[in-house]
Amino acid sequence: MLHHKSMLTIPSTLQRCPLLNASIRSLRRPPKLRPGLSRLALTTLLLVAPVNFSLAQSPGGATGGSTGALPTLGDNFELSVAAERRVGDRIAASIYRDPDYIDDPVLGDYLESIWQPLLKAARARGELAAELDERFAWQLFLIRDRTLNAFALPGGYFGVHLGLISSVSNADEMAAVLGHELSHVTQRHIARLITQQSRQAPLLIAAMILGVLAASKSPDAGSAAIVGGQALAAQSQLNFSRDMEREADRVGFGVMTDAGFDSSAETSMFAKLQQAARLNDNGAFPYLRSHPLTTQRIAEVQARVQLAQASAAKPTQAQEDAQARAHLLHAMMAARARILAAPGVDALRTMVVEAQGAVVLPQALASPVSAANIHDAGILYAGAFAAAQLRDFATARSLLARLRPLASGIARANQTVDLLAVEVDLMAGVVPPTVSSVNMAKTSSRAEVLIQARSMLAAQRAPEVSNRLQTWVTAHPKDALAWQLLSQAYGNQNQAVRAIRADAESRVAQLDYAAALDRLKAAQALIRSDPASADYVEGSIIDARTRQVELLVKEQALQDKVDH
Q: What pLDDT digit, counting tens, does each position of 322-359 carry?
């Protein structure tokens, strides 16, 4: 995790998830003890139980000193891969229903452009085991929260706060954060922490029993034994968590550099974290912290950066130009994140005023991407999007016209501006004028497919939308937003059964199996009442999906019963 909290401390967005604490509590239950053992025999049994907190040195890790390491082949995880994924799925289902969860295709595409190279590098380095790669979700969530934070969850789910995207300076710093969180999961830190806590349970029980025995002779000695045992267990857990953080720093650094990101970004990212934590963290009592001191982690990263830069070749002019173009795109994405975090009307008006006062010099447009261009692009994008949020669409279009020259010649930046123009028209309730030139068959990125689908629906071109989205969801069956738009497209064509099934699939994608089953059964009922409402193939698909979702609902209910 990024902030100074324990590995399993969940951000405020997830504190409303009752399933998380129940799931983790069920995994921490100590083993049942055989009745009939005397108090002395029971105490002896618990005291000699083997407890192993050692970590083996990681093979193939990035250079740099670290006490964290990978688990050895002999480690016995009490939380299996399948169990960890089940816990993660249940937390993810709650996130989907949380009002702070946001699915923004534009920001989602941007994060995926950073995330996928990190996953590829982790596979190439051998950090990502084949079983984890296949069975975990490896999915990012966007959280509407202005704090600078990201977090890893069981089963390969990751949360990214909008405040983090708006605070980092470039994609390299974002890669440093995501690489760190990715390493928490590839190294199975959550499973290791739960196993370590479970192994501590016998020590805690032994301390309590010894305290009871000692209390018969001396109450003070009994209290001391109980408190001392609890303190020892707490300190062991803190040390274990600090080792995990160092390991995630080290492995994450290797992953991000192998993925092609600037190694120095990790140092600047830690400096931002230190600044953000300064109000709440005075750096005292390092032995009581679950994370290493930020200054200590910065020093370790700086040592790794120096080694990496010493062996790295000097970037070419083409590479520097590509990096500048990437920074310009990030400036616009950071602006989008600030606005989607709902900063308030006054903040939106300030962004509009700042954008209106920005002066883009003609010579800046003729030169390669400069720091001034990057800064202006972020301000103008923020102003245009903020004006649209304030329903001042004339100002939004005016600022977009000033933004276009800065993005011209940069394919992704230019596409981002085009998509914002479409969004502005849709927010204004008008059909985008560019819709006549849209060829849905040629749309490729998720943001382009979904935003242009909305514009085509506004233009009453539902058949083209349903054809394109049907192809899209075939390749991306877990895209809930695409299923929802497909449902709308089918509804506009009076294909009620297909619309209901697409709605059900969107619920499956969000792990809400009970709601999906209700929709599928509604589709079956509609077919029975009106056989002409669907063909044989569609009816067969619905019947098959109903059976599959029924099994998922039963499995979920059984797991709930086991956990409770």
A: 888 899 999 999 999 999 999 999 999 999 999 999 88
Core vs surface per residue 65-104: b (16+ CB within 10 A) or e: ebebbbbeeeeeebbebebbbbbbbbbbbbbeeeebbbeb
Quote the CA–CA distance of 470 and 479 in Å, as a whole number: 11
Residue 435 has pLDDT above 80, yes or no: yes
543 band by pLDDT with thresholds 50, 70 and 90: very high
* Residue type at position 69: A
Rounded Cα gap, residues 335 and 172, in angstroms: 17
Place of tokens 């009592």: 285
Q: Say what angle helices 317-340 and 345-357 make with each other, to 10 degrees.
A: 140
Alpha carbon dihedral 123, 129, 135, 137, in 10-degree steps, equals: -50
pTM of the full structure: 0.80
Residues in a beta bridge with 102: 142
Measured N-to-C along each axis, helices 393-407 and 371-389 cross at an angle, to the nearest 10 degrees, of: 160
For the segment 202-232, what is each residue's pLDDT rounded down to a tens digit? 544 444 444 444 455 555 554 554 455 445 4
Eight-state DSSP code of residue 146: -
Q: Which among 472, 450, 480, 427 is positioned nearest to 141, based on CA atoms? A: 480
If we measure between CA atoms, which residue out of 531, 458, 534 comes closest to residue 494?
534
User: Cα separation of 258 and 558, whole Å?
Assistant: 43
